[in-house]
Specification:
Layout (H helix, E strand, L loop, with lengths): L1 E4 L1 H5 L4 H21 L3 E6 L2 E5 L9 H25 L6 E6 L5 E6 L4 E6 L1 H12 L5 E4 H7 L4 E2 L3 E3 L8 E9 L4 E2 L10 E14 L2 E2 L4 E9 L2 E6 L8 E8 L4 E16 L2 E10 L2 H15 L6
């Protein structure tokens, strides 16, 4: 499952005809790569593409074909962005999620409309995995990784929480395919996904290791595993230390004594914004924040 990042923001500044041309060039390129690797383009979901390997035609080593396809797709984004740059367009990025498992496959519909597709829990998991991917990233499930073996160079396992599942799902970040000389280009400086929100919080400044008594209010505009972007009433200088408190309403937790530091501060459209990095977080609070982000990201736009 692939999903384009940044297209919605780009579309706001494009004429409708040009917007469709950009999207069609992207979709055409992704489909060509999918078919060349033995994949079956199942459907478009807005600007996302769902590709199936191993159905309706059997395909030996289908997991390897899928990962190879994903790596080639990410590399192809370089050519696409060079073409967009010549047209004065900003770059586009894509995240990819891959899962392997049993599915129900067949033609669904009626005489009015019918299509061949696959359904099942493992199909849904591919979409969930994609939702955690960063710009330019290829994430695969442990089931896919097990089928690929040493064919794939991947990062260490990461556990994520998926809606509808009581146990965490283990995923890995694909770095490349050594035997084919393919390397997935790193495109994001972020170490975790971030999700938009509108969460009230309070903070107190720390000066010379002393927590000042005055409590300030603000609003969290987006949050990730290691920090947040906050809208504040008063400007905050870079490197200001603070202690924060906020609720995580989706999971019913109240977090206190989250220590942070202002990494950047700016004005944007009449608002004062501060990027705050977490510098000291208790283990339970860290788990809560990760859980909150992972639950929210499966139903909210990512940044």
């Amino acid at each position: 499952m692939t999903d384009l990042r940044g297209f919605t923001a780009m579309a706001d500044s494009l004429a409708r005809r040009e917007m469709l041309a950009v999207l069609n060039r992207y979709l055409a390129l992704m489909c060509e790569i999918a078919v060349a690797n033995g994949g079956n383009v199942d459907k478009f979901l807005g600007d996302a593409v769902m590709v199936v390997f191993g159905a309706p035609r059997r395909l030996a080593h289908h997991a390897r074909h899928a990962v190879t396809c994903a790596a080639q797709m990410q590399l192809a984004m370089n050519d696409l962005n060079r073409a967009n740059s010549k047209r004065g367009l900003p770059p586009l990025y894509m995240g990819i999620g891959i899962n392997s498992g049993r599915v129900f496959a067949g033609t669904l519909g009626s005489e009015v409309h019918a299509e061949y597709t696959v359904i099942g829990d493992d199909v849904n998991l591919a979409s969930r995995i994609e939702s955690f991917s960063l710009r330019g990233q290829v994430l695969i499930s442990e089931a896919t990784y097990a089928r690929c073996g040493r064919f794939v160079a991947a990062g260490g396992p990461m556990d994520v929480r998926v809606k509808g599942k009581s146990k965490p799902l283990r995923v890995r970040d694909v770095r490349g395919i050594p035997s084919l000389g393919l390397e997935v280009p790193a495109r994001s400086k972020r170490k975790s996904p971030r999700v938009e929100g509108k969460i009230p919080f309070t903070y107190q400044k720390i000066v010379d290791n002393i927590v000042l008594p005055k409590v300030h209010k603000g609003t969290i505009r987006d949050i990730g595993y290691g920090g947040l972007l906050a809208e504040v009433r008063h400007g905050l200088k870079e490197h200001t230390d603070m202690v924060l408190q906020f609720d995580l309403p989706l999971i019913g937790r109240h977090e206190r004594e989250i220590y942070g530091m202002v990494r950047h501060s700016r004005h944007h459209r009449g608002r004062r914004l501060a990027g705050i990095e977490f510098t000291s977080v208790r283990t339970r609070a860290e788990q809560d924040i990760r859980y909150f982000v992972q639950m929210l990201i499966q139903g909210s736009p990512k940044k």
